[in-house]
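Session log. Operator J.P. requested a structure for one protein chain; no other inputs attached. Running the standard single-chain path with token output.
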Amino acid sequence: MDTKGHRKIETGVVIRCKQDKTAIVALEKVQVHPIYKKRIRRLKNVHVHDEKNETRVGDTVTIIETRPLSKTKRWRVKQILAHSRVSQEK
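Structure written below.
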């Protein structure tokens, strides 16, 4: 079965980018409790491959699932949607 065309695509915010060619992106998922109907925020941090070191803390990025690049990296940056104000000042 060919799953290359069915890779997961997520949108998140860069929370760390101190490593070389690696950024850590927070993915936020909002769930509704089945009984109490209260919204619950779930955060997941993933290591993302950033080949050109373009991302900065606070940037909103689209990431795509890829083959394992290291022990923890399974995603890569597809597109930078919005730069943070902090990265524009530098």
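Operator note: The chain has one domain: 4-89.
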